[in-house]
């Protein structure tokens, strides 16, 4: 498997992870004020997931241009 193909597979997994993190954040927001202490950890997880996804997408773009 080439670097581009493996990176695309990784991006697909990260996209699913980011989508789940988004849904977790959405579900938490609908339950507020219940579980309000978990706001920071859920938001951090969502931020980390999307940050990693964006980084990998940028890396893929750079590989595809080369």
The termini sit apart by 18 Å
The CATH architecture would be: Orthogonal Bundle
At the fold tier of CATH, the topology name is Helix Hairpins
- The shape is elongated
| Model regions low in confidence, pLDDT < 50 over at least 5 residues | none
Report helical residue fraction: over 70%
Range of strand content: under 5%
Number of domains: 1
Q: What would the average pLDDT be, to the nearest integer?
A: 96
Q: If you compute it from the alpha carbons, what radius of gyration comes out, rounded to the nearest whole angstrom? A: 15 Å
Secondary-structure-derived class: mainly alpha
How many alpha or pi helices?
2
Q: How many strands, what sense, and barrel or not for the largest sheet? A: none
The CATH superfamily bears the name Helix hairpin bin
Count of individual beta strands: 0
Pfam families: Rop-like
Organism: Bradyrhizobium canariense
InterPro entries: Helix_hairpin_bin_sf, Put_N_fixation
Coiled coil: 4-31
Structural notes for this entry:
The protein has 2 helices and no strands. The protein has 66 residues and is mainly α. The chain has one domain: Helix hairpin bin (Helix Hairpins, Orthogonal Bundle). The chain is elongated and about 50 Å long. The protein starts with a helix and ends with a helix. The model has no long low-confidence stretch (mean pLDDT 96).
């Amino acid at each position: 498997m080439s670097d581009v193909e493996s990176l695309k597979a990784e991006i697909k997994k990260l996209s699913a992870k980011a989508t789940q993190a988004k849904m977790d954040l959405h579900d938490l927001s609908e339950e507020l004020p219940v579980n309000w202490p978990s706001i920071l950890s859920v938001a951090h997880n969502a931020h980390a997931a999307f940050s990693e996804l964006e980084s990998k997408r940028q890396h893929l773009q750079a590989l595809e241009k080369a």
